[in-house]
Amino acid sequence: MVLTLYHSPISPNSRRVWITLLEKGLEFELVDIKLDGEQFQPEFLAINPFHHIPALVDDDFNVVESLAILDYLEAKYPTPAMLPKDAKDLAIARMVQLVTVNELLPAATTFLPQILGLPGADPEKIEKAKHKIATVLKFFENLLDDRPYFASHNLTLAEVVAGTVVNVLPSVGIFLSEYPKLNAWHDRLIVRPSWQATESTPEAMEAFKSVIVARNTRQTQT
Asked: How far is 190 from 193, CA to CA, in rounded Å?
């Protein structure tokens, strides 16, 4: 059976799985879930009752939550290896993943109105988010050593999780020039074929913007 990834092209959570599938050279099918309500349809709820993307179907096994999907892919398809074996290196990779999910992504999401060109940005929240992002970027900078990737000479799951969020920061005026190791790390990622193949298109961003506008309009009217 071919792996099936239910995803949205503008979602960093989806993109990290998409990139991993490409980096591992796996055969898979992409199913685009339009976030205007398709995620609440019975067919998708049968796969993920929490109506979130991404979701991966492997034969009759459904995997939800992106980090769980990445672990599943690494365990079932271990070549190429995308997690270090050394205890310290593994801890670094895991820290990068979890700090991205728990600290960096929530802060970056504060900029969503700005990214989409919509009103509603909260200046106070943005300042707090900028401070949080700076803390994360400094932490990442200090974790990088003379190896090209976090704790490895090869691409790891830390890269696909952190890279898909760091990638959006320049669009909100947050640049990596103060973090030379992280900047070089980011430059290595964005030239990889898997990154370029999964880059969100302007059309996808416009479609997502329409969903957000419609959702905000409904909330205003209720």
From this structure: 8
CB neighbours of 158 closer than 8 A, spacing ≥ 6? 92, 93, 94, 96, 97, 149, 150, 151
Strand order of the sheet with strand 3-7?
A: 28-32, 3-7, 55-58, 61-64
Residue 137 neighbours by CB under 8 Å, 6+ apart = 166, 176, 178, 179, 182
Backbone angles phi, psi at 152, to 5 degrees: -165, 155
Task: Evaluate if pTM is beyond 0.85.
Answer: yes
Domains in the chain and their CATH numbers? Answer: 3-80 (3.40.30.10), 87-190 (1.20.1050.10)
Cβ neighbour number for residue 155 with a 10 Å cutoff: 22
Which residues, given as ranges, of the chain have pLDDT below 50?
none
User: Coil, strand, or helix at residue 47?
Assistant: coil
Give phi and psi for 4, each to the nearest 5.
-125, 125
Rg (CA), the chain: 18
